[in-house]
Amino acid sequence: MWWINAKRIIKYGSIGFIRNSFVSLSTILVMTVTLFVIGSLIFIGAVLNNTLSQVREKVDINVYFVTTADEGSILSLKKSIEALAEVSSVEYVSRAQALEEFRLRHENDQLTLQALDELSENPLGASLSIRAKETSQYEGIATFLENDVAVSAGEEAIIEKVNFFQNKVAIDRLTRIIDSSEQFGIGIIIFLLIASVMITFNTIRLAIYTARDEISVMKLVGAGNSYVRGPFVFEGVLYGIVAGITTLILFYPLTLWLGPVTEGFFNDINIFQYYLDNFGQIFLIIIGTGVLLGAISSYLAVRRYLEV
Amino acid sequence: MIYFDNVSKIYNGNEPALQDITLSIEPSEFVSIVGHSGAGKTTLLKMLLAEDSPTGGSIFFESTNIHSLNRDALNKLRRRIGMVFQDFRLIPNKTVYENIAFAMEAAGRSEEEIATDVPYVLDLVDLGSKIWSFPRELSGGEQQRVAIARAIVNQPDVVIADEPTGNLDPVSTFDIVQILKKINDLGTTVLLTTHNKGVIDSLGRRVITMDGGRVIRDDKSGRYAL
Lengths: 308, 226
Fold this sequence. Notes:
The structure holds 2 protein chains of 2 kinds. Chain A is an alpha+beta fold. Chain A is about 75% helix and about 5% strand. Chain A has a 4-stranded antiparallel sheet with strand order 2-3-1-4. The longest helix of chain A is centred in the middle third of the chain and has 46 residues, at about 165-210. The mean pLDDT of chain A is about 80. By secondary structure, chain B is α/β, with parallel strands linked by helices. The interface of A and B includes residues 19, 20, 216 and 225 of A.
């Protein structure tokens, strides 16, 4: 009995889907727009996250040492910095490395290189490049270094300068931008999601409104509520699947076209590549949202007309 | 078989639509209910189908009080009553076959039963050739015959026809009345509401006359008297 009912529900759901082709088409179009918005949000989120983490990566504190600083005391300072909870990594650049990097950077600039060769001694000091886990933590690290400098000042100061204080304004501003863009992003996502879900729900409700007489007739011939509702819910699921597949197909040429643009503009993230790499997850989100949206909207819409 | 016990219905403080209706209908009876528009005929039928509940009194189908039934039991009861409406109420995007099959499916009948019974009832209403048509491809009379086929396919105990000829020409009206008589001859109770004097006079069966929500006449073998 259960199986027969399920079969009939699927059959009539499919028949309704095909015969009311105009209603189906318009509902699918609206739903595709909704799913497209949701999909776009996934891509925007990915690009935003990637960009933010790249910007974060670029922020660091450099501690420059005087040329006479002893390597042993630099390394012991490095150790004590690494011990801080806020620090994610510390990179040591020795004097020799600094010189090599300098030469590499200016390999096409003969004049500078000649000037460098004129000097008998390596003019560059060693440095530590410190990276924090969160941009907001740089201030704490800088304060620690400042205190440390103060402590070691009694002996012989090995730190020439800490560039945080020059970069402080930029880092502060960046921290604020990152925080507010995350909040703004979440706000927009919620707003668009609610708006598009409401539009889809309303479209399905209109589609079912045209079938309200049909529903009352079904009730009057003695059909149970779940039996009346079944085909409509199944039709809603079909809308979701078709709209989901349409959306996924639409994203293919779109991301293919936008891929190189995003790669150039946002460094490093090609949304086409992102789409392919995360296809499974995106597929599940888009199709799953479509199916749920269709089913729940239909379920709620039919419920109004079942009270006969 | 059907018993109205002191039934009243008042819609939000308006004039009562039904007042103290007490009447009983026996098995295999053919009962016509006549009256002007607003006399309470349709309200009476709605009470019987539990589409609406009475303000006072109770309605019994055999020994069951209809308005005390839960949803499941009510669905089962409705499968024992076949309904025919003035506006046919066929499902527009289903074929004739599917419209009738739907009523059987709702009653949980098997595919084999459906495949044999649907063509059988369509032959009974002389529409065997229109089995794959959609309602919009049929005339009014034909649509009403499909509606009757749908009403009788589950072999109900009662067929309720609410102004079934209201939208039809005289020839189709005659056809419909003949079909209802045939159904009644096969043992099914028929409850008919109509405005049509000719129909009532040609039937020569029990006539209940209503006015202002009351039963004003109940004649065993009556004529249209309004």
